[in-house]
Amino acid sequence: MISRSLKQLSQALAAKEISSVELSALFLDRIARLNPEINAFITVDREKTLAMAAAADQRLAAGTGGALTGIPIAQKDIFCAEGWTTTCGSKMLANFVAPYDATVIAKMHGEAGLVSLGKTNMDEFAMGSSNESSHFGPVKNPWDRARVPGGSSGGSAAAIAARLAPAATGTDTGGSIRQPAALCNLTGLKPTYGVVSRYGMIAYASSLDQGGPMAGSAEDCALLLNAMAGFDSRDSTSLDRPAEDYTRDLEQPLAGLRIGLPKEFFAAGCDAGVMAAVQEAIREYERLGATVVDVSLPNSHLSVPAYYVIAPAEASSNLSRFDGVRYGYRAPDYGSLDDMYAKTRAQGFGGEVKRRILIGTYVLSHGYYDAYYLQAQRIRRLIADDFTAAFASCDVILGPTSPSTAFRLGEKSTDPVQMYLSDIYTVAVNLAGLPGMSIPCGFADGLPVGLQLIGNYFGEARLLNVAHRFQQATDWHLRRPAGIE
Predict the structure, then answer these.
(1) Which of 19, 24, 76, 402 is catalytic?
(2) Which end of the chain is more exposed for a tag (fewer CB within 10 A), N or C?
């Protein structure tokens, strides 16, 4: 039962093969047994989960349930959930209990009837590519527990890979859904900016952050996106568009599909084993009827420096609210109000968060705003224009998700620049606001390799179709880590 897809679990619940309470208890028992070693979950509340499952069973019995009603899911601990501790992986919010639901949580609990298993570990305030910056300790990759699961949604990724949950929510500011999906052999989707509401999602970089689904397959992600997406008047960046069924095109054939291969993604810098798996995936797409075309993203080499100016600048502003006055951690000893601010933030934030706040404050300061922040925003426009030009000759863009497989815990934690380069293939998608996803495409030295697919604006249904047809022809996404019984 624990290895079934969301569609199969839905069918089992509808056939009364298992109840939501029984299914939820099955996953809660696995969390109790395996989480102490993997550290994928920060908060689990068995009583709350089983109460939600019992309510879902009542809906199913009354015939008022939907496609996902009663299915348990893990929630990244960046989404506020009423009555649940919501930490964002930080000491600053270690004891914060959310007084309201994020829109994503409200839609999943209310309309869809999904059952939350708990809140998953993450890089502090979503700042990281390895899930090592969490106040609650690093997450271990179920494929090799001496390696990272990726970040910042590493807890969600590890939970699915270890089958502690059949699916999870994540957020993606510069690759934080796609990179951990790649390193843990999962499917993860970052929608077009504005498709999923950010209300109640604790902000890192507001013009880049986007929530999305993580699961075992493209079909599962399509079902989850149906539950997550939609206009929200409480989010000023939410897009008021007609509702979509993201499963509608899953079975469409790929004949005539034009896949763009950016020459910049296939240059030096990617591990040979990763590139070999990506090249084999391209050949599989050609067997499925797609054609490949060469495209160029000439400004993509500027995406990492532009991102690491814009994102810290926005973080510097967003994280100013954590001052010890209204909620969250407060330093126990201080001499004045200014001293309380300084000590609270010094003690409450971890090293990576402090680094990005300082960078952001610097680039926004008088005399440096034009030289750094404004220039980065101009580069952002050029990057978006590059994608627009590329999509004139192709339908989707393909390349590696990450330049390497999962690296060892501690391997890059003392070298921030090397850590930031883990996002070299992903950050441009966020700068442009495009949809992107990662799907499993093979292994290198026994570790998963992710294939990134990038679509044009609002092209999520097409992306999911392209991913689904590949997964019907391959079995990479069905592989499970050894030792996860």
Answers:
(1) 76
(2) C
The catalytic residue among 130, 176, 300, 404 is 176
Would you say 88 and 80 are in contact if contact means Cβ atoms under 8 Å apart? no
pLDDT at 61 over 80: yes
Q: CB-based burial of residue 190 (10 Å sphere; 0-12 exposed, 13-18 middle, 19+ buried)?
A: buried
Q: What pTM, to 2 d.p., does this model score?
A: 0.97
DSSP 8-state symbol, 371: I
152 is catalytic: yes
Query: Where does the pLDDT of residue 197 fall: very low under 50, low under 70, confident under 90, or very high at 90 and above?
Result: very high
Q: Reply yes or no on whether the pLDDT at 485 is more than 70.
A: no
Active site residue 404: no
Helix runs in 15-116, H state only: 20-38, 46-62, 103-106
- pLDDT per residue over 259-294, tens digit each? 999 999 998 889 999 999 999 999 999 999 999 999
Domains annotated for the chain, with CATH where assigned, are 6-256+437-478 (3.90.1300.10)
- Residue 176 bears catalytic tag: yes
Q: List the catalytic residue out of 90, 152, 153, 316.
A: 152
CA–CA distance, 473 with 122 (Å, rounded to integer): 33
- State yes or no: pLDDT of 255 exceeds 70: yes
